[in-house]
Amino acid sequence: MHFPYCLAKCPYCDFTSFATPREEIPHAGYADAVIAELHRRAAGLAGRQTATVFFGGGTPSLWDPAELGRVLAAILARFPPVPDVEITAECNPSSLDEARARALVAAGVNRLSVGVQSLDRQRLSFLGRLHDPPGALRAVEAALASGARVSADLIFGVQGGAPQSAEAAADEAGRVVDLGLSHVSAYGLTIEPGTRFGDLHRKGRLPVAPDELIMSAFDAVGAALAARGLRRYEVSNYAKPGAEARHNLRYWQGHEYLGLGCAAVGTLAAGIQATRYKNARDPRQYMRLALEGAATEAEVEALDPETRLRERIMLGLRLTAGFDIAQAASDLGVDPLGPDRRRAIDKLVRRRALEVEGTRLRVAPEARHLTDGIAAELF
Ligand code: SF4
Q1: What pTM does this model have?
Q2: How far is the CA of 267 from the centre of ligand 1 (A)?
Q3: 10 lines ligand 1 (CB under 6 A)
C-alpha cells in the first residue's frame, strides 16, 4: 500500500513521493480512493487471506492514523488475516512521536520501520533529512514504547557532510540496535538517475564513496550487528531469530502481492502465468480514477514462467539461505537447469561465488556484495 506524500524530497530518493505540506495531504480522500481500488480488485480475488500488509511510501507516518486504520480495516474485512498477520508502517522521525506510534498500533499496525538513516548531524543534513540524531533516537524509542516490533533503516557509504568510515558505519548501526531493536535494514547509498544526487553526480559534483569503502562498511556493519545477535538474512537486512520481516521474505520468495495506491505495483498469479501492474504515478490522477471505479493501472505486463523463474533466481539469491531452484521451477512448470544454466552454476561454484546443496543455491558469504552480478549469470 503506497502512500505518496513526504514533507520534503530527499536528494537520493527515486521512490514515487511528493513533497507536500502536512495540511495539504488529502488524508480522507486518499483513503477513500485506496478503498475503492481495493473493492474493485477484490472482486477477482475471492478466498484469499492477508498474510502481511506493508504501508510504504512516501511517509505513511504522516497519514492520519484513523485514515490508515480505515484502509487497513477494509483490507482485513475483504481478505481475513492469518493468525500471525504482520502489518508494517514506514515512519520518519520527523513525523513519529510516542502518541503517533501508539495511534498506529491502535489502528492495527504491529511493526514500525523507522527511517533513521544516520546518527551524524552533517550526514543527515547532506542526505536532506529533516531530523537530527537526537530526533532519530527519540523516534526509535517512541516506536519501541508503543509495543510494536521495530526496525530501523540505515544508509552507509555516505561521503558528503562528514565522510563516513567503515568503523563509523558500524558504530551507528550498533548504537541504533543498542536501543533494543531486533531488525535493521542497512543499504549502501546508491545514486539513482533522475534524482538531485544523480544530477550532481553526472556533473562530477557529488562526493562518492569508493567501492572498497562501501564493501568494508558492508562487512563492518554486518559484524557489528552479528555481535549483537542480528544475523544477515538478506543482502541488506539483519534480524534476531524470528524477527525477520515476513512481508519482505514473502516478496523475495516470489509470493504474489496486491498493490494499492498511486504508483503501487502488484503481481498476481493465475497458475503459472502472472500479471504485474503499476498504478498511475500522479496522486490526483490515481484518486480520480479510483473514485470513478475506473482502472488505475498505468502499465500492465504479462509475466511468463521463464521470466518468473529469472525473478525467483534474482530475489532468492538475495537471501542468505538461498532458494531451491528445482522447487521454484516445478512451481512454474519450467525446466530449472538447461545446459547453459548448469554450466553457469558450475563456473560460479568453481569461482567460490555460489554454494550448491542438492538443488538449493546460495551465494557464498564472501561473494555477498556481488549478488546481483551472480544472479545475472544464471539468467
Ligand atoms: S522520506 Fe523516504 S520516500 Fe520521502 S523523499 Fe525521503 S527517502 Fe523518499
Answers
A1: 0.96
A2: 24
A3: yes
